[in-house]
Design a protein that fits this description.
Layout: H1 3-13, H2 32-47, E1 51-54, E2 60-64, E3 72-78, H3 91-106, E4 115-120, H4 133-139, H5 144-147, H6 158-164, H7 176-180, E5 182-190, H8 195-198, E6 203-209, E7 212-220, E8 224-225, H9 237-255, E9 258-267, E10 273-274, E11 277-285, H10 289-310, E12 313-322, E13 325-326, H11 330-339, E14 343-346, H12 351-355, E15 360-366, H13 382-400
Parallel strand pairs: 3-4, 3-5, 5-15, 6-14
Antiparallel strand pairs: 1-2, 2-4, 6-13, 6-15, 7-11, 7-12, 8-10, 9-11
The protein binds (2S)-amino(hydroxy)ethanoic acid and manganese (II) ion (3 copies).
GO molecular function: hydrolase activity, acting on carbon-nitrogen (but not peptide) bonds, in linear amidines; metal ion binding
Binding site for Zn(2+) 2: 89, 124, 374
Binding site for Zn(2+) 1: 78, 89, 189
Length: 401
């Protein structure tokens, strides 16, 4: 695989869903941008004589060989992005999967078991709030009855968004038959950090995913007039929220962990009114589960202490939790041995992390010189991506014969 060949396929996908100005992507599940990305994938798959199907949860599968066959080897990732995200997080794994099929054929590999490239839906949870929704539904890790009631920030139901794309939301739910047909899953992903850059390696293998979770904080105060209410008479939820953000930063540093408040909703969100209510979402991640628990509990306590001072109220609810994921199965060991690549943990969640509890799973990382992700500065060179395709092909060749 040459850098030029990688760039040729990449350039046919990368303009889709770019948000203009900042060069970021707005590929949110079941929006027009997402549907165009999905059409792109189907076309590229059909061009390769792969059999395309969409499963009950909206995940797309492109099969080389019998979809009903057992012992399937699957690769792929996702096409959705966070708002104004980078272009590689997700799509790199999908493009690499399609090119790996090309390279397997050029090497004369004839799989003795079905091979598929998969696109999981709503991996970022950027529209409906639950990360890895497509793979969680497939594995039974998320309740379909709750899923159909998920709404985006405009109040659109997931059920309606999927219905608009021609899917029947009543079919959402576990897909054990499909899962049991999978013998291996390999997700290639851009590294969301600079470990490979620091050791000058183009490709790495994942050892683990940090435990992490999303927690909704609701702050309730007293709406009032911004001009006539004395400071001493206020119960401003934004003040409690602000102190919670500062506490999250301080406590995370003390725990050697990561805590982020990246999304805030305020009501009534007016310039000349003290807010009555504010919601904020904490993204918390740590190297082990007990540290994660302590981190979140301490932040919650600090928020409650501040609320007592401000005369406001705070409530916290965990929205999605991911336990520690160890990539220690045969496929991961083979990847590390076969590729001779460095092995590294990540703080980022992936569909591979959801599948790892059900299927022998490995993740490959491609070097990201900026280390930035979930922002337009995310980057990977075509040369490194081409190496990633070759290493993915090596691994798939070993697994599918
Ligand atoms: O948020 C994550 O960890 C991943 O990038 N979806
Ligand atoms: Mn991501
Ligand atoms: Mn991703
Ligand atoms: Mn007025």
């Amino acid at each position: 695989m040459t850098a030029e060949r990688f760039a040729a396929l990449w350039s046919s996908l990368s303009p889709i869903g770019r948000a203009g100005g900042d060069g970021g992507y707005l590929r949110h599940s079941w929006t027009d941008a997402d549907l165009v990305c999905r059409e792109w994938f189907v076309e590229e798959a059909l061009d390769r004589d792969l059999e395309v199907e969409i499963d009950r949860n909206g995940n797309l599968w492109a099969w080389w060989g019998e979809p009903e066959g057992a012992g399937a080897v699957v690769t792929g990732s996702h096409l959705d992005s966070v708002p104004h995200g980078g272009g590689y997080d997700g799509p790199l794994g999908v493009v690499s999967g399609l090119l790996a099929v090309d390279r397997l054929r050029e090497r004369g590999v004839t799989p003795t078991r079905p091979l598929a490239v998969v696109v999981f839906t709503e991996e970022e949870g950027a529209r409906f709030g639950v990360p890895c929704l497509g793979s969680r539904l497939m594995t039974g890790a998320f309740d379909p009855a709750k899923a159909v009631r998920l709404r985006d920030r405009d109040g659109v139901l997931l059920a309606d968004a999927m219905g608009r794309a021609g899917l029947d939301p009543d079919r959402l739910g576990p897909d054990p038959e499909r899962l049991n047909r999978m013998a291996a899953f390999v997700e290639l992903h851009i590294e969301q950090g600079r470990a490979l850059d620091h050791i000058d390696a183009p490709v790495g293998v994942a050892s683990a995913i940090w435990p992490h979770g999303r927690y909704r904080f609701d702050f309730a105060g007293q709406g009032n007039h911004a001009g006539t209410t004395r400071m001493s008479d206020r119960h401003d939820p934004m003040l409690t929220l602000a102190h919670t953000v500062l506490a999250a930063d301080e406590v995370a540093r003390l725990h050697g962990a990561h805590a982020t408040v990246g999304r805030v909703d305020v009501a009534p969100n007016a310039t000349n009114a003290i807010a009555a209510h504010a919601s904020a979402w904490l993204d918390a991640r740590a190297a082990d589960e007990s540290t994660l628990e302590r981190l979140v509990e301490t932040i919650h306590q600090r928020a409650e202490e501040r609320a007592r001072l401000d005369g406001t109220r705070v409530a916290m609810a965990a929205e999605s939790l991911t336990g520690e994921v160890e990539f220690a199965g045969n496929v991961s060991r083979l990847a590390a041995k076969e590729l001779g690549a460095p092995v590294l943990p990540t703080g980022a969640g992936h569909d591979a992390g959801v599948l790892a509890g059900h299927v022998d799973t490995a993740m490959l990382f491609v070097r990201n010189p900026t280390g930035v992700s979930h922002a337009p500065q995310e980057s990977a060179s075509a040369a490194d991506c081409a190496v990633g395709v070759e290493r993915l092909t090596d691994l798939l060749a070993r697994l599918c014969q």
